[in-house]
Write a structure and sequence with these properties.
It is a single chain. The chain has 225 residues and is α/β, with parallel strands linked by helices. It folds into 2 domains: 164 residues, TIM Barrel; 57 residues, no CATH class. The protein is built from 9 helices and 10 strands. The radius of gyration is 18 Å and the shape is globular. The mean pLDDT is 95.
């Protein structure tokens, strides 16, 4: 099992999205955990502190022989431009992945990218970040597998494993989970976390979703694109 080290307390008013440490790596090791996990909200005002805290925690975990998982999320109101939300754009999530692997994450958990072009969109308001147009013309296309492959490329070209989120529960969870798993696998990812899609369902339906995801990764017919 793993121990998630930081969380949102959800008691402060008004609520915010800061992640604060609730436990230590040493406590997780004493419990017998094989690994530790943490969340960083890249782009948020608190991200500098979170990066420092998680980097030190992951260093300690590796020293104790444990593996590390980073919930590698974005959080900034400026990433919503007009009617478009770029929190799930390939360029922003790819940069977050890059930052995550450089601080010692062994596995990156990231939302599946649904679009691209976050940097150009935000730069219409004011100068922000650094990017090159070839990111969009030569390194990726609008195809879902290409967008996910860009995330994989930002994880040391796949050396650090990418698992995508299954997302919130909806009306077509079985089909959505299967599609996400196929995209992740064909892009070079290593797995899919499927929480709410499975666990908020009746037991039989939840097991069917989990088994379908397993079938995708076990299938020899679903290969790298």
């Amino acid at each position: 099992f793993i121990v998630k080290l930081n969380h949102n307390d959800l008691l402060r008013y008004p609520n915010d999205y800061d992640q604060i440490m609730f436990g230590s790596v040493r406590q997780a090791a004493d419990m017998g955990a094989a690994g530790v996990g943490a969340t960083i909200y890249f782009g948020s005002p608190e991200s500098k502190r979170q990066i420092e805290e998680v980097s030190l925690a992951f260093e300690e975990a590796h020293r104790l022989g444990m593996f590390t998982i980073l919930w590698c999320y974005l959080r900034n109101s400026a990433f919503k431009v007009g009617d478009t939300d770029y929190h799930d754009s390939a360029d922003f999530t790819g940069q977050a992945n890059h930052l995550g692997v450089t601080i010692g994450a062994d596995i990156i958990k990231q939302k599946l990218p649904l679009r691209n072009g976050g940097y150009p969109a935000v730069n219409t308001e004011k100068k922000y970040g650094k990017y090159d147009e070839r990111m969009y013309t030569e390194l990726a296309s609008d195809h879902p597998i290409d967008l996910c492959r860009y995330q994989v490329a930002n994880c040391y070209m796949g050396k650090i494993g990418l698992i995508n989120s299954g997302g919130a529960s909806g009306v077509n969870d079985l089909a959505d989970a299967a599609k996400t798993a196929v995209i992740n696998k064909r892009a070079g990812g290593m797995g899919l976390i499927c929480g709410r899609k499975a666990f908020q369902k009746p037991f039989k339906q939840g097991i069917e979703i989990l088994n379908t995801i397993q079938d995708v990764y076990l299938s020899k017919e679903v290969t790298i694109a």
